[in-house]
Structure formats: structure tokens, C-alpha cells
Amino acid sequence: MSNETYTSSTRIFKELLDEIGKVVVGQHEAVEHMMIAILCNSHALVESNPGLAKTLTISTISKALDLKFNRIQCTPDLMPSDITGTYIIEDIGGKKQYRFEPGPVFANIVLADEINRASPKTQSALLEAMQEKQVTVGNKTYMLDKPFFILATQNPIEMEGTYPLPEAQLDRFLLKILMDYPTFEDENEIVNRYTKNIVPSVKSVVSKTEVLELQKLTRDVPIAEDIKVRAIKIVGATRGKSEHIEYGASPRASIGIILAAKARALMKGRNYVSKEDIDVMAYPVLRHRIILTFESERKGMTTDQVISDLIKNVK
């Protein structure tokens, strides 16, 4: 690992966030969490209402990181081969030969837009790519280029004609990120920027090699034993006798909170994980991994409210 990358990591993240901010107004937490998922070499699920710049945000991040970006618009008639790729027949010198034509999943950053509109069979085609970082077509396996990151989006409003992601696939996402409406000031700035002739653009500030080095650096961030224990206790509390939680989170959540906390510490310019890192990252790591009881949902409780109570009760 390059010592130069470590010493300049604070500068790299500042330049990166400043560059993304030229195009994306506000949404600082969402951008930070997407970057954290990339640093952890994992994937993220984003939920928001339409028109809140999900596609713009992730495509801007890919440009700033100098990574290849592809977008998949999920629809009910989308087939697995539309994602992974397929063999096509070519006539070469009078002989017919099969050639593999890679699908849109062969990129560094892949946006699976409205993933819950795709059929379960197509959703499962992403599982191997997400977990193993490879694609199997026929009897041949193709490795995906590193780094590889999937950002899937869901629209919480239109649920008719959708296929909710199964728990096994939800668990593959490190974070569930929520994007909210902009403030008045941010929306005013959005209108000012995007109603002129000159459209904001972004330039590359980090190379692919630096991204891979930062991923390695993330895992090297030290964490004190008591801070690590706190993360495990928070996840363990989801499995105890709770009037609000039907099913708790697996050990994958403990790994996720600690890794995400390390990435957040690195982005904040610290070489240690703080209690705040654990508490802040518990929300996006746990909100799609716990299932609330029917009574709690009937009362209108949200997973974030339940997670907040758990964090307050863990000493």
C-alpha cells in the first residue's frame, strides 16, 4: 500500500467531495454513505422519492473516481442475460462461432435503477456478481473488474407491480441509504444551476489504483476493543426480546457496522474509530436487516426509531 495515499487521504476526500458538490447540491450524508460503501468494497441500496438525483449522484461519483459506469433500468420483462450478457453467433471465415457479449454488469459502478421492478429471477442474477464479484454464463465464469460496486434504487411510493427483494439479497447490501427532499436553500441552488446554459460538470480527481488502495487502507484503520464490543452489542440487541423487532440482524451486520465505521473515520481524517462512527453507521447498516413486529408497524414506528432506542440502551 502506498504511504503517499495514506498521508494524502484527507486531501483526496476533500477534493472528491468538493468535486461531487459542483454537480450534486446537498445530500451530503447520502454522498458520504455511498463513498463509505465503495471504500468497504460492498454495495448500497438507496430509497427515495423520484427526482432526488439518485442517478445523477452515482454517475457523478463514478466520474470523480474515474471508474466505468453503467445503468440498468429494471423492468418486469428484464431477463438475467440482459444484465450478465449472452453468447452471440458470429460468421467468421464461413464458420459460425460463439462470442460472449458482456452485459452492463461489466463495469466498476453499476446502477440498478428500481431494482424491485425486476422479476425475482433477474434480481438473483445480481447475487453472484455482488457476492463473488464474478458472472457465470453457460459453463464459463468471467471475473468482474475491480473495484466493483452496485447501487440499487427503490421507489417507496409505487409498490404496485413490484417484487420486494428477499431477505437473502437485502443482506448483501452493506447500507440502506435514505435520500430526503432538499432544503429550501439547496433547492434554490439546484434551480439556479440547472436553468442556465452552462451545465455543471465534474472531473476525475482519484484514479482506480487509488480507490483500490483506499479500500485496503479502510480495513487497516485501528479500532479499540470497547468500541468493537459496542458494535456487537448493538447488533445483539436486535435479537433479544423486543416488543418492536420480529427478526434481528445476523453477524454480517456486526462486520458491516465496524467496516463502515472504519471507512467513516478514514473519510473524517482520523486513524481510529470513535463511538460516534459506530452509532452513526448503525442506522444504514441495520435499517434493512431488522424486521419490525406487526404491532410496531401498525403504530407507525420506523426502523430508524427502533435503532435509535437500541443505541441509547447499549452501554
TrEMBL record:
Residues 43-175 form the ATPase AAA-3 domain. One of its GO terms (molecular function) is ATP hydrolysis activity. Keywords: ATP-binding, Nucleotide-binding. This is Methanol dehydrogenase regulatory protein. The gene is moxR. The keyword Repressor does not apply. It comes from the Archaea. Residues 242-309 form the ChlI/MoxR AAA lid domain. InterPro entries: ATPase_AAA-3, CbbQ/NirQ/NorQ/GpvN, ChlI/MoxR_AAA_lid, P-loop_NTPase. Pfam families: AAA_3, AAA_lid_2. The keyword Lipid metabolism does not apply.
